[in-house]
């Protein structure tokens, strides 16, 4: 099979437009082109002669392929002498729906939206199996005639006799060059179809030999439908019962301490192997950091302060339909990644664990106008896909902090996002989505906030998404902070940033935080008790992927981001952390003990709170990033799960974390459907208005008598507290005292003999159960 490209000298195109309805049924080969008085051109990336018999003259052409300047030699050849090397295709006008590549009765149909384009060219390459990591071969190109291959703003073409898989494709698109009006057309760029269901690029994550590899769409109509199994069913866990574990697919098993075969380290298959750990921990939902296709080498495409970094978090989407291909084991590529992703979801579901995806619809990888990385949307129709400031020379608006902002509420972009979400639910059986910087979804095309954003409403009302968990990160980098007021239609949950901040401040001993702490652990009714919203519309968290890990939260007063290359200017300065007396790692036994006690206090508070608790991967053993609170670009132990450290802490720190999670799931007093009433909770407090008071005790009442008493002491001294009477015919048993060493810090069956008072140690907490 030849790696070649056939082009004409004008408009970067090759196959001519279909000239008439009759011509659309012609078989295009050298003879038919000759009859139309046209020539074919053949391009090779090396510029070598194709045959000693070829009569040609050489011209030079520079193609800008995703930021690379590739010098190519064009050999113009008369068509009759190309007959033995020219493929033959039968071409039809095609159809406008569905968008993307689809199999139809008479071939493969390609359809793409571009409202402002003046010329569209479909580019194909048919690589040999096993050579997909090298995309530098030639391309076959088909120019689309707007009279026949365009319906409305959809450009389309159907090609017969194409292989049903293993084809790579993209588009060259031309149009107005007026930047001031927001256009960014360049027909030299080969662009990824926004509706490509699979994207192919380099095969191995972080492979420096293919640092500048291109990305193209592909399709697979050969594989049989995935077998989900006759007994397969989704867990369908009620929102109030969720315990979420935020994690990174690659970082979970990339480290050699995972003791997995090297071929599956850092892959979807690797995650499957570690499901027993998730079950032992006790969580029942994973929230995966972005798994849509992204380019981990995006920081290394040009010299810059971050050009030593590899994007391991993935918040830089190339395509919204394709699973990250380099998370496939053994370099399995796009098709392998799709299959393996489904295997992972199936295995998690069989274990009773739901799968929530962290999705990034607020911006893409294509950066800004100063240093653009054009791969798709920018070159297809920039002023439709992105917010642009037409009052400022058509510059991109930037509410994402990443150089561009997706124009989410434009009808075409909104439908793209909805189609993407439906695809992940129908094709991959995803249970829910967490929307990164979701306040962007609440902005109009000019960036102004919308009271009833169409996209947010459509997601809430969509039939296919009706059973999905939908979670907003209710802020963006433009200052639109919507915690508690995100447009919700009684469906949307939110990352509760107020919960994070208030919990951090109370546990570390800030003054005046007792009332806020009580409000947060009881479900944040001040934020969410509106209309038909519920306590579980608050996703409670103390730690997330961005920011300190739990161990660093109690070990550092300041961020230490020097390794990121930005002089420590990146990352948040408002961490509400406390190093317990020393900045960073220390051998001081007293400080180390206090830090682990504080981590237990945070974890207990999180797991007894009304709402949905979310914890971060690695906190169950005390993972440290050594004070780096913005570690997105480190494909190292800084981010990677350290399995040997887990083993070292299995009997104490991990045991406590696991036991508390399992305890929460067994006791419905922590998972109320509705907000707490006076019959649900008793606050043992008459000192609410004293800002110096850092002690709080309360009882959660169980209708069957199994009450839970909790006390949190954030003072640096002990507090002797009076214990209320247990319910009739019951006695208090101590389940948790974070001041005690393992295994006494958690005793599931409870320790009897609790008297009328209890001495709560400094910076500690207790849980008593009435039995």
TrEMBL record:
The keyword Lipid metabolism does not apply. It is found in: Plastid, Chloroplast. InterPro entries: GH, GH13_cat_dom, GlgX_Isoamylase_N_E_set, Glyco_hydro_13_N, Glyco_hydro_b, Ig-like_fold, Ig_E-set, ISOA1-3-like_C. Residues 246-655 form the Glycosyl hydrolase family 13 catalytic domain. Keywords: Chloroplast, Plastid, Transit peptide. Its main location: plastid. Pfam families: Alpha-amylase, CBM_48, ISOA1-3_C. CDD domains: AmyAc_Glg_debranch, E_set_GDE_Isoamylase_N. Belongs to the glycosyl hydrolase 13 family. This is Glycosyl hydrolase family 13 catalytic domain-containing protein. It comes from Hibiscus sabdariffa (roselle).
